[in-house]
Structure formats: structure tokens, C-alpha cells
Amino acid sequence: MHELQIASNLVNAVMDAAKEYKNATKIETVHLSIGKLSFVGEEQLRFCWGAITDEREILKGSELIISDEEVEISCSSCGYVGDLEVSEDPLYHYMMPIFACPKCKGDVEITKGNGVTITNIKLMIDDGEETDG
Ligand SMILES: [Zn+2]
Q1: Which class would CATH give 2-127?
Q2: Residues 59-74: pLDDT tens digits?
Q3: Structural domain spans, the chain
């Protein structure tokens, strides 16, 4: 399952980040930015996150706060930077991204919106004070 792998990678990344704080006792919230092109199911990701973090004391009960990341592409031919063109297939009710420049139909590079990024982690330090980091 795609989401299980992602959740597992995220847990490892969060654990690594928490190690930087020697007295971190609990991770409270993890903010994620999920690119619209990453095709990650938010519900599945939350489920997997819950299953994995349940086994780790420091992460148990932590909350995922998820925000969408818009897609941004850049065209090397005409220099266009912006949205990816999307067309809806009425037959399948499925959004099909078109991987071409909306201006010149040239090849584009996806510069944003195709991954899952941790944007913020809120953890509890031993002395009871909360730290953003
Ligand atoms: Zn172009």
C-alpha cells in the first residue's frame, strides 16, 4: 500500500527530528503538506499513521494536520510557471492532469505538488513547555 510506505517514511523522519530535542517526550502534532499530484489518500494515510504511531510511545496519539499543496509546473520552452492544466473525464469522474505547458504545449517540470512534506512538528519537551520546530 502506497500510503503505508509514506506513513512509515514520515514516522522515521519525525522520529529523527525529535532526536534533535533531547528532552522531547511527546510529539503532539505533525503538519503535512500533501501535493495534489502525489495521489496520496488522506484517509488511508491517517489510518496508516495511527497504526504505526500506536506502537511508538513518543508518537502515540499524535495528530496529523494535513493541508493541500497546489501544483506548480515550469516550462523550459516558454518560461511559464504556474498551474497544471487539468481536464475532467466525465465518463470516469476522474481528474486527468495534462503534463504539458498550457501555453506552448511544451514539456514541463513539476516543481511543486507532487510529494508529501512535513512542514511543522509540535512536540512536548520534558519541562512541560511546548516548542515549535
Ligand atoms: Zn511553455
Answers
A1: alpha beta
A2: 999 999 999 999 999 9
A3: 2-127
